[in-house]
Amino acid sequence: MMHYIGPAYRPPFEEKSLLLQVSTGCNHNKCAFCSMYKGVKFTPSPMEDIESDVRFIGRNRTLFKRAFLVGGDPFALPYKRLKRIGKLIGEHIPRIESIGCYASIPNVLAKTPEQLNELAQLGYANLNIGLETGLDDVLATMRKGYTADEAREALSRLNEAGIPFTLNLVHGLAGSGRSLENALASAELVNEARPALVIVTALHVDEATELSEWVDSGQFKLPSLQEVIEEEAAFLRATELSDTIFFGMHETLPVRVNGHLPKDRDFLASEVEAALQRFPGQQLAAPMRRRKPITRA
Asked: Which of 52, 149, 167, 250 makes a 20 to 30 Å CA pair with 201?
């Protein structure tokens, strides 16, 4: 039997991956807008549990071709442990072609270029990173724990090591009145980073967060529906990418599109802009809605 403890999340593209728990919770757990791991202590899984799970999967001759390491930020684990996990998977589940996980900018920077190169050789690929925005002041306000320049350095290291990655962005995270600024800053950083995949969401305020308190006190003004739509269109038009999948299908988005950049860039932007004609003016002017707290069994 596999070892799973606490809440476990995975990106939509990992639906066919082997989910291997290597940690519980998020080691940063300070983002002002996130409630996913509130009250959950970051804890590395016992190595004997990980090894037991890998051996169990190997004995059952499953058809998995990819493993996704479960936890809020498994890349926070020390290099030697990630290396050991990669070797275990390669030895006992040889069909696995790649290993992914959630990762953060600080924990990429904590690995040397040589360590990243070795992890790439072990199959680590398509790391999922919450970049959120390219604006330094917003990164600081939302307590992300890094600057835009640090993100540039970390993502450059991943590219040099040959580790593809996904970047997540949040439209509206800069608040009302800053949609174009946020779109252009995020596009500039993404253009430099050259991710394999970009996933976008619209700002959604979970009630059990610091951001929710800021909204209640008037410290943070939520963007309107129109601002979020315009931000996504502006972001798309500002992209200069050569081979990146754009995934804008999250439930929080008022307009849902996906495609390939640069081939579909103008079409996707036009589709998003056309939505401005479909919503009533009163709805476009209204702020984005809040979201109920995440409940767990």
From this structure: 149
